[in-house]
Amino acid sequence: MWRFDVPPGQEIHTATPIGKDRVLFIIDGDPAVVRVVNIVTGATEKEFNLAVKHPISVHPQFRHARLTANGTLLVAHMDLNKVVEYDSDGHELWSFPPPCRGA
Description:
This protein is an all-beta fold and 103 residues long. The protein is 0% helix and 49% strand.
């Protein structure tokens, strides 16, 4: 199997396999990072930063990220209170803020 040790002061709350030899995960931190790692070679194949509201407060940054059938990435930005779809290079395609609480 494969293991990734999270650096001190950072957290990982979401990861998803890509086929049998890659994994995509988000490292909550300063900066927050999306990373795709080849678990056979250990090589980082893709990496880009994500915007966060409070870089020092890593725990509430992210919980879910999912790949779409089109090869894009949907990310739930908890601390920004929105969902963002990114292309494979980390460019924002669209975002959607959820309804206001208590409305």
